[in-house]
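Task: complex structure prediction.
Instruction: return structure tokens for all chains below.
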Amino acid sequence: MNEALTIQGLSYRRNQKQILKDVNLTLPDGQIVGLLGANAAGKTTLMRLIAGSAIHFRGTIAVAGETEVALRKSRVSFSTQLDGFDANWRVGQVADVMAMLFADFRSEDYIQLVSLLGLSQKQRIKRLSKGNQRKLGLAVTLARRAQLYLLDEPFDGIDVMTRKAMLNSILQWKPETATMVISDHHVEDIERLLDQVVVIKDQTVVAQEDADNIRAQGQSIETYFESFYGGETHD
Amino acid sequence: MTNMGKVTWQLVKERGHKLLQLLGLYLLVMMILVVVSLLGRLGASELFGIGVSFGMLTAIAGFLSLAVSQERVWVSNRWRLVPIANWKLYAASTLANVVATVLLWLLLGLIILALAMVKPVQIDWPIEAVPFALSFGCLFLVMLLLLGCLISLAHMLSLMITDFLPGMKEKWLKGLLTFGVVLVALKLVAWFFDGISWLFRVMGFSATAVDYSTGTALTAQISQVIIVDMWLAIAIFLVGSVCLSLVNCYLLRYWVETKQAQQTA
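Output:
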């Protein structure tokens, strides 16, 4: 099995504050990984560093063996790609632009995903509710044929029905060999999807475990996660 | 990896679209003025004068709009996650601004020309003024390019420095720092112009070009000297722009990160 992501000795400081310290992590191909941690644990920062939108770090990050930042970006699809799009644009227009800028973007997949998630091609981005904007972000992310997908709290502020539709899309559209990292602090949302669990605490990765091992011990993923925080993980 | 040409084309399309909205507004105002003029309430020279003045305002607004779009590129995930080298993204964005500016100027020029044809106006321009106008246009374009580079430099420096500051003090310090950086940038521009004037004097060129803004009528002999001066100034501005761009590319590659919490806009 090849490695989708290899991180060695990663440290990151910003505003005189240590956010990540000596992070080491290796993820194999074809997995769905839960990146779990309390608020402000560094989950989003870690994703930003992997994707290449945060840059001033120490250590090495390799995606499918590639450390050079532009090549790394070509292999990662990050759920914040929608940030910066003109809010006046229509949902359908996003596909044309993404196809122009990302060689691995599949417009036909995007159109199917948008339809599956109940969005209209003609709707303007600014008219979409928060939940629908999240759906759009998911459609944009999954429509790329990347080797590593990073979904940063995709279900934040989303109702139960929408969550179900999004979870189904994730299962249906993730390429078999690609790895997907989903960050969340509401573990129950993603519990059933996960192959692996990575826990971030005290600015570093404190645990990496197969989800099946946790389940075999008769624990839920949520209980396993909360054991690191003594039950104090929520907002 | 994404092709630089595709990124440039996409940026030109998006920025061109914004400028077309400005141009639409200009056209609307001009159409109203033409109607007023045809009703006899506005003379030909007045119509032409308003057209030129309002055209200049539109060009300034266009420059500001492009500068804002350019600065958003450095901090938006949408552009920074595109798999392309940082220097190529910088070059694509700068080139897109130059192309969009030239297109705006050309369209404004055509509208003003059309305006002069609707209500013919007497303009006393010798044929020698054509190469002069061309050189002046290039000089102005390169000056805007340099100004754009300076704006990016000030923006990127402020982003870089505020990343080092403690989070608690960041907000008020950021404002203070940005103000300081802008002042330093303005001082740098002043030094740059002093340097150009000094270079002109040392090389024995006439500095008439700098005084042309008074609108004095030109003889063929003088304009020839001015044109040479202008092309020298263009070369100097270009070198200045390239130097600043190198610094900007370094900052973009190693220091400038995207904003963490963004809305689609």
